[in-house]
From TrEMBL:
PANTHER family: ASP23_GLS24 FAMILY ENVELOPE STRESS RESPONSE PROTEIN, HYPOTHETICAL CYTOSOLIC PROTEIN-RELATED. This is Asp23/Gls24 family envelope stress response protein. It comes from the Bacteria. Belongs to the asp23 family. It holds the Pfam family Asp23.
Length: 116
C-alpha cells in the first residue's frame, strides 16, 4: 500500500497502481503530451505506452509525509516543454490531492522524446 487515510468509518488504502493510473490519465489530458513512455528503456529506445497501460510510465514512492512521483512522457514537436511540464505538475498535484486526500511532495517530469 502506497498510502492510507484514516477516517471515522475506517481506513482507506491506496495501491501504487491506483495512484499511477490517476497520474497517467491526468498527464494524458494535458495539451502537448503525445503519450507516456516506458520507464524501462533498453538500448536507449523508448516506446509509447498504450492508453490501457498508462501506469507503466509512472513511478510512485511513498515517503513518511507524502508521495514522490516520477513520470516519463513524450511531447509534441513545436510546444514549449517547460510550459507542458508545469501544466502536468499542477494537474497531477491537484488531482491526486483532491481524489485521494494524499499529499504530493514532489513531481519529476522526464521528457524522453519529441514526436512530430
Amino acid at each position: 500500500m502506497i498510502g492510507n487515510i484514516t477516517c471515522e468509518n475506517g481506513i482507506i488504502s491506496y495501491t501504487e497502481e491506483v495512484v499511477a493510473n490517476i497520474v497517467g490519465v491526468s498527464t494524458m489530458e494535458c495539451y502537448g503530451v503525445v503519450g507516456m513512455a516506458s520507464r524501462n528503456a533498453t538500448d536507449g529506445l523508448w516506446e509509447l505506452i498504450r492508453s490501457e497501460n498508462l501506469s507503466k510510465g509512472v513511478k510512485v514512492r511513498s515517503k513518511e509525509n507524502g508521495l514522490s512521483i516520477e513520470l516519463f512522457i513524450m511531447v509534441e514537436y513545436g510546444t514549449k516543454i517547460s510550459v507542458i511540464a508545469n501544466n502536468i505538475i499542477q494537474k497531477i498535484k491537484y488531482n491526486i490531492e483532491n481524489y485521494t486526500g494524499l499529499k504530493v511532495l514532489n513531481i519529476t517530469v522526464n521528457v524522453q522524446g519529441v514526436r512530430v
